[in-house]
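quick q for whoever's on today - can somebody do inverse folding on this one?? i tried earlier but teh output was garbage lol. tokens:
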């Protein structure tokens, strides 16, 4: 195994702190396979959030997240999550780590173009990821909490990182909620080029193309 394989395999992905490798350039590959102690200088994003008004020409990793808030969720804070990753960087090894303080029943429900995928505690461990890969998991998480007479749902930071740089990432959040009980009254960040927000009765969709680190916050008003 080359140094390139080792470094590309030292990757962790998680919903609350998403980290992934970017496709290295020829210059990066030359450094990874050389004996140099320090990499050459690269012009990359260092973490500051920057929305991309025009999506990249090449496919980039996409995290598609669906949350189901039910009347029961309003009592205990637990909701159902389905998360699908597409176009993860093709690397020898990858680990998706979930850092929720309260999480149950994590399971893989779909896996394509990935030789091996297995749930180990609060992680999904994979090997030999090919281009065009897809991984979907489901779990129960406790992330909705009452605050000052409202309910707050916070997610992030989402980011895609390789070495010391942040690279283009595509994140979609689909939030289903009981419209007869809840109404979203604040969404952060606000809509802008590179970030769209769609409101429908009982469903909220946030889609972002960006570099850097993205946090989202949705505040609901309860009106029953």
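ok took a stab at it. sequence:
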């Amino acid at each position: 195994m080359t140094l390139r394989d080792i470094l590309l395999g030292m990757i962790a992905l998680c919903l609350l702190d998403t980290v992934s490798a970017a496709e290295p350039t020829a210059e990066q590959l030359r450094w990874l396979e050389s004996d140099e102690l320090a990499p050459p200088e690269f012009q990359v994003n260092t973490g500051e959030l920057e929305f991309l008004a025009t999506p990249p020409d090449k496919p980039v990793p996409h995290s598609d997240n669906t949350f189901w808030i039910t009347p029961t969720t309003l009592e205990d804070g637990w909701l159902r999550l389905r998360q699908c990753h597409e176009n993860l960087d093709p690397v020898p090894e990858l680990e998706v780590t979930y850092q929720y303080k309260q999480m149950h029943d994590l399971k893989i429900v779909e896996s394509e173009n990935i030789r091996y995928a297995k749930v180990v505690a609060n992680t999904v461990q994979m090997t030999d990821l090919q281009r065009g890969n897809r991984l979907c998991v489901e779990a129960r998480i406790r992330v909705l909490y009452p605050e000052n007479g409202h309910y707050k749902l916070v997610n992030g930071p989402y980011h895609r990182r390789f070495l010391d740089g942040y690279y283009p990432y595509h994140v979609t959040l689909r939030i289903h909620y009981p419209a007869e009980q809840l109404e979203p009254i604040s969404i952060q960040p606000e809509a802008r080029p590179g970030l769209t927000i769609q409101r429908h009765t009982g469903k909220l969709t946030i889609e972002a193309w960006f570099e850097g680190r993205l946090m989202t916050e949705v505040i609901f008003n309860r009106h029953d």
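fwiw Confidence is low (pLDDT under 50) at residues 1-23, 31-42. also The longest strand covers residues 123-142. so keep that in mind when u check it
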